[in-house]
Amino acid sequence: MSGLVTVIPTVRESVTAILRLHVVKPETVKKGKARPASIGAALAGSAFCVVADRYLVTAFHILNDGKPRDPKDKFYAFVVPQNGDHAFHFPVVSFPVERSDLDIAILEVGPCATAGVHIPAIPVSFDAHADGTRVGTLGFPAPEIAGINLDQQGNYRGGQFFLKSHANEGIVSAQYVIGGVQVYELNVGWHHGESGGPIVTLTDQPVAFSLMQHYRNVKSPHGVVAGPHRGCGLSMVRREITALGIPKAIGV
After folding, report:
1. Of 46, 83, 130, 230, which has the fewest CB atoms closer than 10 Å, so is most exposed?
2. Are strands 208-211 and 198-201 parallel, antiparallel or unpaired?
3. In terms of residue numbers, what domain contains 127?
C-alpha cells in the first residue's frame, strides 16, 4: 500500500473528464420557423494533463466512438479538485495529435471558465516498465447526465451530473509488441468513462507511461469475453510529444 495515499491525491489533480457535445439533428427552418438543433451530450472518457493548463493526453476512441472526430463537435475538460463539491471546465480549443492507429489523442485546452483554477501536469516516461511494476490508474466513470445547459451557440453553460474520479492499483502483468506497438497489460479493471486516464508508476514521484484504452478479447465457454485490460506505451508518440515541447520525466 506504500505510496497510494500520496500518489492518488497527486495524480487526481491532473486528471480530467471529457465532455462531448455533438449535433444529433441540425437546426432546420420550416415555414419560416426555426427549429433549434438537437444536441447530444456525453462524458465519454478521461484525460490527463502533461503540460500545465495546456495539453491533455487521452484515448482517440472517446472523441467519436473510434471513428474520425466530427469537426462540429465541441469538447470540454472537467476537473473536480480532490473529488470535492465543485467541478470546473476548460474548453478544448485544438487537437494537435489524433492517432487512430494507436488510440491516442492530445488535446489543447484554453483557460478555465472559472478564474484561478488550474490543471497541474503529470511527468511522462518513454522508458519500458518491467512486468511486476506497481501501477496506479485514475479516471472518471461516466455519469448519467440529468440535464445540460447550452447557450445559443451551443457552448456549455452548466449541467447536472455526479462527477467523481476513481482510483485503482495493480501491476504490469504482461507486455509485448504487436503490430509494432508496445502494449502493457494490467491486472486492473476500469469502468466506462475511464478510458484515456493515466497509468502511472506508484513511486514517490509518479510518472505516466501509458493510458487506459481497451482490453484483449478472450475466448471462453460462453463466447468471447473481455480479457486483460491494456494500453500502449507513450513511447509510441514520443516524436509528437517531444515536438509539442512536453518534457520527459528526468531519471525515468
Report:
1. 130
2. antiparallel
3. 4-26+34-243
Rounded Cα gap, residues 53 and 109, in angstroms: 7
Q: How far is CA 127 from CA 60, 81, 210, in A?
A: 22, 29, 10
Strand ranges, E, within the chain: 15-25, 28-30, 33-35, 38-51, 55-58, 74-79, 88-99, 104-109, 134-139, 145-150, 156-161, 166-178, 181-186, 198-201, 208-211, 214-220, 223-232
**Residue 171 pLDDT level (bands cut at 50, 70, 90):** very high
Q: What is the pLDDT of residue 249?
A: 58
Q: Determine the Cα–Cα distance for residues 99 and 104; give it in Å rounded to an integer.
A: 5
Is 103 within a domain? yes
How many angstroms separate the CA atoms of 37 and 71, rounded? 16
Query: What is the rounded average pLDDT of the residues 173-184?
Result: 96
Number of structural domains the chain divides into: 1
pLDDT at site 33: 74
DSSP state of 240: H
pTM over 0.90, yes/no: yes
CATH number, domain containing residue 208: 2.40.10.120
- Domain membership flag for residue 222: yes
Residue 249 belongs to some domain of the structure: no
Tell me the per-residue pLDDT of 65-109, one tens digit each, with 9 for 90 and over: 999 999 999 999 999 999 999 999 999 999 999 999 999 999 999
Residue 3 has pLDDT above 80, yes or no: no
Is 53 within the bounds of a domain? yes
